[in-house]
## 1
Amino acid sequence: MKKEDTVEVRFKKQCGVAKKKGIIAIALFYALAALFNAQGLLKRATLMEYDAPMRTTCLSLAKPLAKLSHFLRTDRMRSWIENNIKLEEIKND
């Protein structure tokens, strides 16, 4: 094994992504995913068992997220894509 291939040398060269950038990228990914699927999250939360503390927590998070998603119109993109895929499947049959 060459000295250039050791972990210490790579760390000193700072190859890769910094932790802070990685955490920010992952958080941004999940935030966008939640915005695109906010209606699904709300539906899933409403279908949970009643009197469960997790249900009230999920609903308290999903309702404002669904309203924001509707205001930003990010909920329409998914339905538009699904409708166009269904139309293409119908035309191909």
## 2
Amino acid sequence: METFTRLFGSLLVFVYHCFDRVVINGYLSGLSRPGQVVHFFQNVLGEPVIGKEVLSRRTNEYQAWVEAFARNHGIAIEWAEPKARKEDYVRPALRRMERAHRHGVYFILKSMEQGQTFRSTVPRFATNDPNYRILARQRSRFTHYYFYIRDEVLGPMVMRAASFFPFQTTYYLNGHNFIEKELGREKVGFRKNDNAFLAVSDPQALQAAADRFTSEVIRKRLEYWTLILGAKFSKRERAAMNLRHFYAVSQIEYCRNFIFKRNFPIHRIFERGCEIGLWRTTANKIAEVFGQRVTKRLKGKLNTVVEQIEHGHHIFRAYYRNAFIKQYEKFSTYLRNEACSNNLADFGLRKSLDNLAAVREKLLAVTDRFAAFQAQLLNVHVDFPLLQRIALPVIAGSVRYPGIKNSRHPHPPPDGSAAAQQYGGLRLARQTDTPGRTHQLRAFRPNLRVEPASLRSAQAQRAWAPGTRRLPLCLPSHSQRRAGGTPAPALPQTPLRPAGQQLDLTANSKPPITRPIPPSKTSSTCSPQPDVTCSNVEVLRFMNEAVRI
């Protein structure tokens, strides 16, 4: 995390971390097992037979109470539309509640979903007790109620209550809604869009409000709404059974948010992070980010993927068993690293709500390690000093070779020199170790000498045709040029044809005088025959012209 802040600190406005989405399941501790249910109906309520009619009676009573509650408080209760987001459907009712500065339930949706319940069946074979029934847990499809609440402390939240016995409840919270309430109570200016704070007058107050989202605050508000909207039990039933609710974390998300000044760096960082992450985020690196080890007993996912939720909105995910960390950008200046866990046992934690502080520390460390790993990949000035190393000189023994540098304005040749007079256009310079000294390659051209010399390369020692003139080219050494020796006579400068012009072999032109070449003993496929239309002298002139260019 320190590396990320050091690299992009000048581009950031502020950074904060908090809980995002929290899903909590509520269970009745005294009615979670079949034996406890049998004891409740037979010993507490005095029901001799625990059949389907007994269980349906409790369901009908609760459904009737929900209908009466919605009718008495003027709350709309409807069936949820298929393939439609419930939050978008009830958002107009939430806006009306906010404009009126009211708190409480503002909408109720009904939905047919899978849930935990009990099933009573008659034994297959007759028993001595005619009232004996087999009671077992099962998952079935029945009606669930979604209560949309605007709480005074937690902000907008949702409570889902099952209409079948044992009336399991589920709560959907968001840490950003709690922070919004805290900042409004402290009169701190902020700008919030969806579940993200894009601007705030006091970043320290924002982080302090996020740290106050504790298990004690959550439990107090959940107990309040469960008592009002949950299944009803009399005082005698509560005294005879342990009907307290046990709250367990089902899904939890912890995010670290980076707010940038402009959109350009955030888009480039996210784009480059996805490219490098898919290649460098290996299995061992994912386990290191989550603080775990990869063993043969590992079960679950262990991979990375880039998902497209909607057009132009991509999310980078790295999965580890039942948890994952994701990164995405939104609102042009907002970058989020978010760790999500669907089973806290992957981190060696218990799912009770009382362990929320330990969950915060564990997931915060995961986001820190992911940010540090990504900053290490993006820190190309440290990891990939390619241009820097190319520009440095290379020393091999007693020889020092200069590095490659981008010289847009090479040193011009001295005024009055042959190179400056004849080749005043393009100038090629090679930087040497001595400051201010350059070697002009074009200055070597007038010093070409015609003298016999031994052929050094094996390729040059091939057979020549009889009578062919061999004019080797010898460049003077650097010490001879510095001594100021008299330049040797150069080759005769005869007019040369342009590069794109072909030879004129018409009747008016005279063919070049060449000596017939004896046929070669090798195949023309392996060694093509030379062109007899061009003399050796002209070939040499062409080579000379190439040296000048």
